[in-house]
Amino acid sequence: MKLKEQVLLILMSSKGKFVSGEEISKQLYVSRNAVWKAINSLRADGFIIDAAQNKGYLLSGGETDDFTRYGILRIRQLLKKSAADADITIKDTVTSTNTLLRTSAENGAPSKTVLIANEQTEGRGRHGKSFYSPADTGIYMSVLLRPDFKADKAFFITAGAAVSVVRAIKKVCGIKAGIKWINDIMLNGKKICGILTEAVTDFESGSLQYAVMGLGINISRPKGGFPSEISDIASSLYSEEAVGNELKCALAAEILNNFFDICERMSVDKLTEEYKSYSVVLGKRIRVISSNAEYYATAVDIDKNARLIVRDENGDMHTLSSAEVSVREGQI
């Protein structure tokens, strides 16, 4: 990492306070003259850095203008041990982070390759649905894994991602979100995040060659609101129409910290229990739409394979591995 990038991270993390040149030089083990040159280089890059005698330097503008270039520095600064070796790329606009990362996987990209975008023009959800991904309002991120387990355990990835997002939202934003089985993160009855895991399986061994976990979080309300076709089901963490890079970086880093820690250290039993603790469907009357049936039921449990166990209105039990569910009253 270049010296000016290290200086920038110190200024970014000072959260609106002056940092003296002496303090920066001590942190980085360089001369104050080297710090001064780095400051001037950052100014040439478009960053607005105030200087005051006996106070030092203050980053007062420009840090939100280039998420693709400097967001990655802030994210890396916030990563913990389990995520520190992730290979992260940030792009301004992509078609789909999942699509691009799958191509990278086919070309031999290693596990823990991460692609983050400010906007998707062809974002995808489950069952071929599109995922609305406008610029400057959310985080769109995909992670490549090459896990050492069978394909029938791929649910672990989606469940781990869901738990990671709920934890991160609570820690960074102080907001308590929930999980709607199997892959939606909910706030006040509306979806604020979707998760899509796509995997390629070795036919002979039954193991996963690789899996790509993608997620999109609506942090702030898009300008003009959500499209009419999703406005009744979609929401965001905040109602404001603008979101700063500091919040985006903090959320992205915390999700990665949680996700890699869960994948590497957490047992299926503990993950299942935590996943269930965030559920917004357990104990509720839900509407189930599967490939061959549509009915009302009560969500009873979630098993260790992340399957939803429900009791229909006739008292019959069903174990669902895939279906659409909604917590709504009324008759079909």
Architecture blueprint of SSEs:
Blueprint: H1 3-13, H2 21-28, H3 32-44, E1 48-52, E2 56-61, H4 67-78, E3 87-94, H5 97-106, E4 113-120, E5 138-145, H6 155-173, E6 178-180, E7 184-187, E8 190-201, E9 208-218, H7 245-265, H8 268-277, E10 285-289, E11 294-302, E12 308-312, E13 317-320, E14 324-326
Parallel strand pairs: 3-4
Antiparallel strand pairs: 1-2, 4-5, 5-9, 6-7, 7-8, 8-9, 10-11, 10-14, 11-12, 12-13
Helix pairs in contact: 1-3, 1-4, 2-3, 4-7, 6-7, 6-8
Catalytic activity: biotin + L-lysyl-[protein] + ATP = N(6)-biotinyl-L-lysyl-[protein] + AMP + diphosphate + H(+)
Family: Belongs to the biotin--protein ligase family.
GO molecular function: ATP binding; biotin--[biotin carboxyl-carrier protein] ligase activity; DNA binding; transferase activity
Return the CATH architecture of the largest domain: 2-Layer Sandwich
What is the succession of H and E elements? HHHEEHEHEEHEEEEHHEEEEE
Q: Provide the CATH superfamily of the largest domain.
A: Bira Bifunctional Protein, Domain 2
Q: What is the CATH fold-level name of the largest domain?
A: BirA Bifunctional Protein, domain 2
Strand content: 25-35%
Cα-atom radius of gyration: 22 Å
Straight-line distance between termini = 59 Å
Enumerate the spans where pLDDT stays under 50 for 5 or more consecutive residues: none
Number of helices: 8
Helix content: 25-40%
Kindly state the mean pLDDT as a whole number?
A: 90
Determine and state the CATH class of the largest domain: Alpha Beta
Structural class by helix and strand composition:
alpha+beta
Total separate domains = 3
The coarse silhouette is elongated
| Main β-sheet description | 7 strands, mixed
As laid out across the biggest beta sheet, the strand order is 3-4-5-9-8-7-6
The total strand number stands at 14
